[in-house]
Structure prediction request, 306 residues.
Amino acid sequence: MNLILQNPSLFSETEKTDITKFGFTIISEDSDVNEAEVYVGIFKDTRLKLETIKGLKFIQSTIAGYDMIDMDAIKAKNISFANASGIGSAPIAEFIVHALLDKYRCASLFRESQGSKTWISRRQSDAMIDELTHKRILILGTGSIGHAVAKRLSAFDAVCVGINQSGRTVEYFDACYPMNQLDAQLQHADVVVGALPFNDDSRNLYNEQFFKKMKNESIFINVGRGPQCNEDDLLTALDQNIAHAILDVFQVEPLSSESKLWTHPHIVVTPHNSSSSLLVEARLKALIMHNLKQYAEKQMLRNQVF
Prediction:
C-alpha cells in the first residue's frame, strides 16, 4: 500500500527500509502517483488534498494541534486521524518550570548584577527571592501538556489545580474542576497556565473579564494558541492587577517588531519554541513508526482522534 511522507528527509534510509517491511511503498507528495492509503505530515489545504489523493484511509499528523486542518472534511470521508500529541509536552513543561523559577528567584536581576559586577547582599536576596513551594498553579487543560506541567511542579510542592471540561480527576493534580468553575478558581491562583486546545470556546478566552478575575500580583503563562489571548487586554491587566506574563504564542506570528509586548518590563516573550528540544524529533519518529506498524497490522493506534 502506498504511503505519502510529506517530509521524507525526517527518516534515515534504514528507517525507510523498516517502513517498507511493514508493507508500505513510500512515495513523495509531489510525485505523479495520486493514490495512497496513508499520509504522514501536516494535512493543511485539507479539501484540496482530499480531492487529489485517492484511496486515503489514515492520516498521521506530525503536529499535536489540528485547528488549521478541516477535521470535518476528513471525518466525512471516514478517514482515520491521529495526531502527535505528547511529543513536545516535556519541553513545554520544562519551559514553564524554568520561567517560573527564573521569575521567583529574580534571576534576571542577578544576571544584570553579574554584568555590572555588583554584589547583592544576602539581606537583599532574602527579602525578594520566592519559592514555588505552596504556590497555587491553575492549569487550564489537563491533557498531555497540563499533565506534564503538573507532574514537574508537584515535585516543587506546588499545589496544582486543573481545569477541564468535566472536572475529572487527573494524575498529579491536587484537584480538578470543570470549565464552568473557572472564574471561581482564577481568584485563588498564584499562577495561571493556558494550555487549552484552540477552538471556538477558547478563542479570546483570556480577555479583560478573565484577567480582572485573576489574583493581584499573579502570573499568566500562555503556551496554547495566540488567538486565545487578547493581547491589548493583557497589557492593560499588567498595569492593574497582574504582575507578570510569559508568552510563547501570539495572535500573529512572527510577532511584529512594533508590538508593545517585546519591550514591556513585565513580559517574557519567546518565539513559539517552548516545545523545542533535541529529543522531540526522536519522539515524533517513534510515534510514526509505532502507528504505521499498528496500522499495517490492523491494531489500535496511539493518539487516534477518530
